[in-house]
Write a structure and sequence with these properties.
single chain, about 500 residues, mainly alpha, 19 helices, about 0% strand
């Protein structure tokens, strides 16, 4: 226990140092929210992946690997595809346009792009961001409390509050610079921890028996690319859902604000390969760790979730404790907390920028001084984080049987479905209008709710929508709505 606490103390000390050091570089509001638009490709690439993957990679994807085996590699395919499209086809164009508009926030970019004469789009985008981010951050705080409880035996509520306080400290002082550099360190830890563990596990595998034959003996479906039960229509729908998971990277604000902050387009050309290979290797390692958990801890006929936790989410923790000495267990605990915090810090800065710049400065008080705006930004960050903490604690009290990520979908998919169609159409279609953007944002979000809570309940076809999941159809609805409304209500030609 003492060793684990010592390692965590060192890790948190590094985060505090980053916050203090970054505060010396925050001279204006652009520094606080987008790092002065001067970040290098290593920091940007690792920061995007740490934010995009979150604890879902360490706990969720390893758990999926344990539950379904090699068919979880379809998720790896989908993630690599989404990251590749975002970096290769979207990042440079987005960087070029946002630099032209001198945008600091995503709503700022949209308003400038459509030359909005009203505040409707700005308010809608800012409120959507703030609302969904509070939900998403509350889920991550919930995961923090659960991680402290699982590793150290702490009270859940104490762990949640400690995680909240640590993240809030270094964000409040260092802003986006602290977030980006802490995400770089956290992303590096995630990558090394995931990619190292499978090689360590190989030394503990019985070399006299083929590993994959042992896995097939536990359940033949674990070695089938089609999933448990082999090829059938339900498994095909599941694979489509897995392959579409990378769609969330095609415009999610917490990812694209990194493209805004990078130094120049040349850095994007370098960073894309870092981001792509990070995703390929870390995601593949996560799936393999889950499969190893089946090898070490289950036999044929065992209840997987009884052994490995809900949705297999304890797979990584159990493998680490089985293979490594206590000191390294502490390191892996720090890695899991790093994954959670890398998402929390990014989202809080994003939501704070939406409230402070897009609502307060642009609408309520355009004449506010920059010095006062900096103070308000820190207050807004504290306010949003506190609301997210309160939501997490209330959910924990009211729904103790929840899994760690049971309500993260509304936040994560809500953000993606609201903004990805809008940003895709804004970048690649000149006929896209402000009314179309508003329609795309609203219909994308409503699509998430519809395909998550209504379509799966329908008899016959419901199971297919459940397996495909809500993100892909919601994004399609958003794209179609944006296109149709833009066609029905095109911009009036400028007078000659």
């Amino acid at each position: 226990m003492e060793i684990k606490l010592f390692i965590l103390a060192i890790y948190f000390g590094i985060l505090f140092f980053i916050g203090w050091k970054s505060s010396k570089k925050v001279n204006n509001i652009k520094d606080f929210f987008v790092g002065g638009k001067n970040l290098g490709f290593w920091v940007t690439a690792f920061s995007t992946r740490a934010t995009g993957e979150s604890a879902w990679l360490l706990l969720g994807l390893t758990g999926l690997g344990a539950l379904v085996g090699v068919s979880a590699f379809w998720v790896v395919f989908g993630e690599v595809l989404g990251v590749s499209i975002a970096w290769i086809f979207m990042a440079k164009k987005f960087k070029r346009i946002t630099d032209k508009y001198n945008s600091i926030t995503i709503p700022d970019f949209l308003v400038s792009h459509f030359k909005s004469k009203t505040n409707h789009l700005r308010i809608l985008a800012a409120l959507f961001l703030s609302f969904f981010i509070i939900i998403y951050v509350s889920a991550q705080i919930d995961a923090t409390g659960s991680a402290f409880e699982a590793f150290l035996g702490w009270n859940y509520f104490v762990g949640a509050i400690v995680g909240y306080a640590i993240v809030l400290f270094y964000i409040t002082f260092g802003g986006f610079i602290a977030v980006a550099w802490s995400d770089f360190i956290q992303g590096s830890l995630m990558f090394l921890a995931l990619c190292t563990l499978p090689f360590i596990g190989l030394f503990f595998i019985n070399q006299d028996v083929d590993f994959w034959q042992s896995i097939a003996h536990i359940d033949p479906g674990l070695v089938s690319v089609w999933g448990l039960g082999g090829f059938n229509s339900v498994n095909l729908a599941t694979i489509i859902g897995y392959s579409c998971i990378g769609l969330a990277f095609l415009g999610s604000p917490q990812i694209f604000v990194r493209f805004m902050s990078i130094k120049n387009e040349a850095e994007i050309d370098k960073g894309k390969w870092v981001a792509i290979f990070f995703t390929l290797f870390s995601d593949s390692a996560a799936v393999f760790i889950g499969i190893m958990a089946r090898y070490f801890f289950t036999i044929a006929g065992y209840d997987v979730e009884e052994t490995l936790g809900n949705n297999g989410q304890n797979s990584l923790i159990l493998v680490v404790e089985y293979l490594l000495p206590t000191a390294f267990v502490g390191i892996y605990m720090a890695v899991i907390l790093a994954a959670i915090m890398s998402t929390v810090d990014s989202l809080l800065v994003l939501a704070s920028s939406a409230l402070v710049l897009d609502i307060y400065q642009k609408i309520l008080n355009p004449k506010v001084s920059l010095k006062k705006l900096m103070s308000i930004s820190r207050i807004a960050t504290f306010f949003l984080a506190s609301i997210a903490l309160l939501v997490a604690l209330l959910v924990a009290i009211s729904t103790p049987e929840r899994t760690i990520f049971w309500f993260v979908l509304v936040g994560f998919h809500g953000i993606a479905a609201s903004f990805c169609p809008t940003i895709i159409l804004a970048l690649f279609w000149k006929g896209f209008t402000e009314r179309g953007a508003i329609a795309a944002m609203i219909s994308g979000f409503l699509g998430v709710l519809f395909f998550k809570f209504i379509m799966p309940r329908l008899g016959g076809i419901g199971i297919y929508f459940d397996k495909i999941a809500e993100l892909a159809p919601a994004l399609l609805i958003g794209l179609l709505s944006g296109y149709l409304v833009s066609k029905l209500f095109p911009n009036k030609p400028a007078p000659q």
